[in-house]
Amino acid sequence: MTSLGEDLLPPTRRALLHRIAVAQREGRAPSLVAAVRRGGRTAWSGARTGVEGQLPDADTQYRIGSLTKTFTAVLVLRLRDEGLLDLDDPLEKHLPGTGVGDVTVFQLLGHSAGLGAEAPAPWWERTPGSLRPGIADVLGDRPQTHPAGHRHHYSNPGYTLLGSLVETVRGVSWEEALRREILEPLGMHRTTSDPVAPHAEGWAVHPWADVLLSEPAEDLGIMAPAGQLWSTAEDLLRFAAFLTEGDDRVLPAASVREMRAPAAPVETGGSGYGLGLQIVGGEGRVLFGHTGSLPGFVAGLWVCGEEDVAVVVLANATSGLPAATVAAELLNIVVEVEPRIPEPWRPLPEVDDELLALTGVWHWGTHTFTLTLTEGRGLRLTPLGGKGRGAAFTRNPDGTWTGRNDYYAGEILRVVRKDDGSVDHLDLGSFVFTREPYEAGAAVPGGVDAEGWRGLGG
After folding, report:
1. Would the CA dihedral through 205, 209, 212, 213 be positive or negative?
2. Which backbone phi and psi does 281 adopt, to 5 degrees?
3. What is the DSSP string of 159-173?
4. What pTM value is reported for the model?
5. What is the pLDDT of residues 227-267, one digit of tens each?
6. How big is the chain by its Cα radius of gyration, in Å?
7. Residue 37 and residue 303: Cα distance in Å, rounded?
């Protein structure tokens, strides 16, 4: 085991080591490496191996499979942010002649374009990419298995199209765009399209005997944007930090948050898919990241933004070791044994008396809410008692606010005033919020019974 940093307590480090030791043994992986990031730096890394003299570390490359898709999604979001495309654009607008040009960029990013999961035979992950030199070879004779936009259906050909889109719009190869726009700015010098020593060898483990079979490490050719990359635990923790906070050299925080918003419903409970990111719920928290596998390798990267913890697990076995599950369990160990110490409460840097007057209790019909001020002249609406629709709101230049999350995401909150300038009510997407439930004299839709509130006898 290697350990970087001393901010995790010895019992926590031992619990992490114990978990990966059990995972490597029960999963019968030739080797496994894991690492944890917390508080802006690598807090722990550990490794196990069944091969004498070949103990990996956080700088050892493994193939990361579909984790590559998140990198491809970042490249596409960069094109959007630069105004070179819109996520609602049909593919045909930028990449003509594919035969599926009606699907949108957004649908491809979120796997809702209806495309097939895999390329036509032979098995693309275990054969040279030269067998599929063009898009038609990747899509095959029946490229769509579902109507576009109707459901989430994971598609490797879909991310092949996105890689070709990047090449066409950017005018350079996918590999060059990746290196120049993501890897170099983030200092990910050990993330490459081809393996660079030290790197793990890919193995298959016989299901009924403890013996190994070497797996081929093929160049995926045009399908590289769906699963080509090799990386290290340390590099992937750098990528996790970017996915948490954004980086203006690559993507700003707002665009990274957009990647983490579910783009289409999926059929497994408690999980979803954003724009190049998987989203899972469990243990009372939400994780985002991605899993990956190619013959000989499995990978898992999960980030818990609210706890500021990221975990990577990499192993060199085709199957047997559930890298994503182990990564989630390592994250839970850190969060549960050593919960994050929150930042100190601090007062807002300035006060706006007009906004301060809006705070307090408001009612939508008979539902009760509180309205509080947040940094940057924002507002937060919270249902009293915790049940109901709440949201955070961002101030707009015209004096309104836009909802940032949940039911009210994108909805406009306005302050409606009386002729004398005093506040009559709040209008939130046509819902009227008043200081008293069904307040007499306020502009409540449908009016308020002039007889007011009454008991059963009156």
Report:
1. negative
2. -115, 150
3. HHHHHHHHHHHHSS-
4. 0.89
5. 999 999 999 999 999 999 999 999 999 999 999 988 976 66
6. 26
7. 9
